[in-house]
Amino acid sequence: MFDSITGLIEQGGYLGILGLMFLENLFPPIPSEVIMPLAGFLAARGDFNFFAVVVAGTLGSFIGALPWYYAGALLGENRMRRLAERFGRWLTMSGQDVSEASLWFRAHGGRKAVFFGRLVPAIRTLISVPAGIAHMPFRTFAAYTLAGSMIWTTVLTLAGYLLHAEYNRVADYVDPASKVVVLAVVGIYLYRLVTAGSRAASRDRG
Asked: What DSSP string runs through 58-90?
């Protein structure tokens, strides 16, 4: 998998990195924890410019956050929650997730929530929804999303860049690790897809 993913990034170039990071914010075919270190690895090998890789990854992550921000802003919490309850099994986002994210957003303050939320894998995507629901000014949302995303992508890219000297060790580590991460993401998605009905029924009984 190491060679296949690096080959995919090589063929796509900077636009490929941007596109993968965009998709990672919608439904992660390949998680950012795999994309950016491998892009950094290729930068260290001379195939890419390190700073251009960070910019491409950051922009992809930012653009991927926009659909959720605008969905929250246009639909509001109640409609967004109903949409998640109806189609959430395909999005791996439940109505309860929307409500809890909104509560967390309000409890921690909008700016801090958006900034630090971009650094937490479990809520990197979800945090954009309550920001939109709260009608956070777009410039504020954009600034804190870009700042958090840049830190996240820089750290991951730098990790791959610094490990370039240990090519064989990187390949030996990333190959099984990336398989585990991808399988875990797919497994969680399938689990939530299969159990969405029973979880909704359980909440209704509660």
From this structure: HHHHHHHHHHHHHHHHHHHHHHHHHHHHHHHHH
Nearest to 25 by CA among 145, 105, 107, 135: 145
The per-residue pLDDT for 147 is 95
What pLDDT score was predicted for residue 169?
A: 57
Length of the chain: 206
8-26 burial string, b = 16+ CB within 10 Å, else e?
ebeeeebebbbbbbbebbe
Q: Is the dihedral of CA 72, 73, 75, 76 positive or negative?
A: positive
In 25-137, alpha helices (H): 32-44, 50-91, 95-108, 110-117, 128-133
Question: Residues 6 or more apart from 86 whose CB is under 8 A from it?
Answer: none
Any idea where the domains of the chain sit in the sequence?
2-85+109-205
79-115 residue pLDDT tens: 877 777 776 555 556 667 677 777 768 776 788 888 8
Residue 189: the pLDDT is: 46
Confidence of residue 71 (pLDDT cuts 50, 70, 90): confident
Instruction: Give the CA distances from residue 82 to residues 75, 76, 127, in Å, rounded to whole numbers and listed in that order.
Output: 10, 10, 18
- Structure confidence by residue, pLDDT tens digits, 11-27: 889 999 999 899 888 76
Helices 167-205, 2-24: inter-axial angle, 10-degree rounding: 40
